[in-house]
Design a protein that fits this description.
6-stranded mixed sheet, Nucleotidyltransferase, domain 5, alpha/beta
Length: 289
């Protein structure tokens, strides 16, 4: 059921997406493989849903959420039918909920199967090799930090994005066969449903607040860290730059622990010098916010 990526359909309008849904219905498709690509404060500010990859065993599709409406995409992703085979969908579900208000339904997440079968390596590339074989594509590393907000997308990037969904059906079949052989299928189904029932926490604080480094701060230092983080976040949003590019997390920790003074913060070539000066003044309390 794996495809060869020689042909794919790029969908960039609601009308094209509607036609694709009609083709799924006409073919009687009950299950599709699904994955997304996103931007996570790597190239620009914020988390953004950038691409939806779909495969039904017949047609390879990439959907551009920059031009296809959230309402159109919801019709597919929020419906329990067809079922969506995914891998480790927690971060995808969170991004979809935060960026587009989409609550994905009908998920067949293969990650719980891998955990129940106790695979030693549980990243998808390792799971693919352990179940259906194959070697790492040369494009894998090239596009791991690709800027998915850019348009037009490189063809190579699209083919990279499609790689995983093209294998999900075959991986599913192997995993489900092993689950049944080990008497674990019922436990998998329960765990898969339990994870879907847990709604994404769209109000969760950024990851830096959940690090061990932050936990070790005193209560006063945590308050100061939040103040500095808020200042940095506002500037990052205005500049459309990743927060860690505006001021590094290491520098925020250095400021609140007294190892660094605002004047010692290093600049970045992507940020205007006047803006850096304003940030330093606000960190030091010299400039009204």
């Amino acid at each position: 059921m794996d495809g060869d990526m020689s042909e794919f359909t790029y969908i960039k309008t609601d009308a094209q997406f509607g036609e694709f849904l009609e083709r799924l219905s006409a073919r009687g498709v009950e299950t599709i493989a699904a994955d997304i690509e996103g931007e996570f404060n790597l190239h620009v500010y914020g988390e953004r849903f950038c691409l939806l990859q779909l495969y039904d065993g017949h047609e390879q599709v990439v959907v551009d959420p920059f031009t296809v409406s959230a309402d159109s995409i919801k019709k597919l992703l929020e419906s329990p039918d067809p079922a969506k085979v995914t891998y480790d969908s927690a971060s995808d579900r969170l991004l979809l909920a935060k960026s587009h208000g989409i609550t994905m339904a009908g998920i067949v997440d293969l990650r719980p199967a891998v955990e129940l079968l106790e695979f030693p390596k549980q990243d998808l590339s390792s799971v693919i090799r352990a179940t259906i074989g194959g070697t790492e594509s040369g494009s894998k590393k090239k596009f791991q930090q690709y800027n998915w907000t850019r348009r037009p997308l490189d063809r190579g990037a699209i083919e990279y994005a499609l790689q995983d969904v093209l294998h999900l059906f075959s991986v599913r079949d192997v995993l489900f066969e092993r689950l049944r052989a080990d008497g674990l299928m019922e436990r998998y189904e329960e765990e898969n449903q339990r994870r879907q029932d847990r709604l994404p926490d769209v109000n969760r604080k950024p990851g830096v607040f959940r690090t061990e480094r932050h936990k070790r701060l005193t209560r006063e230092q945590k308050r100061e860290f939040e103040r500095l983080h808020t200042i940095r976040d506002r500037h990052a949003r205005e500049l459309d730059l990743p927060p860690n590019t505006v001021v590094r997390n290491d520098d925020l920790f250095g400021l609140v622990t007294g190892r660094l003074a605002p004047e010692q913060i290093a600049g970045n070539r992507r940020m205007p010098e006047a803006r850096l000066r304003s940030i330093k003044d606000q960190f030091a309390g010299r400039d009204p916010q």
